[in-house]
Amino acid sequence: MAKTTPNLDLYEVDPASDGSLTFNIQTMLNDNFDKIDSAIPAAQAAAQSYTDSKFPVQASELSNGAATDAVIGNRTGDPTLASPSSTGTMTQLFGWLMGRVKAISGTTNWYDPPDINLAALSAHKSRHAIGGADVLLPSDIGAETPSGAQAKAATAQTAAGSYTDSSVAGVKSDSINYKRITSMGGLY
Hints:
The protein is mainly alpha-helical.
């Protein structure tokens, strides 16, 4: 006796009981092919919705090399993100690093070349430091030389001494005159 498949209801012939039947092309082939053909679009749609759902993939499910740049796609970092941390999304980490590069270089954009790089700064410092090839003198940067500072201090000391001497002399003179006046009976 013939039976059907459970999923697509395809016609199956039982050789033991149906062996004497005449082969019916319509029932045994064409109807079955039509059922299969009509089931394919639904199966394709189900497969597409499964891939479109973007279900989460665990790291243990990835094969080595599966997370390529093409698979991950572009990321846009934001160098203005506040509160940098050691933990964040890949986009946050890139944004925080971009912000630090921008702050260190002092440029408008994090990717702009700096006015001077660290190697050039180090060479500049070594060249102009004590023991360098071109030592900077205090006068090169507008600083006072020791002898110039001493001369200014001596001038200030002389001026202060002269002022103090004349002020003390005036007070002393006034004091003497006051004593004379009061000894003569006071002012009238």
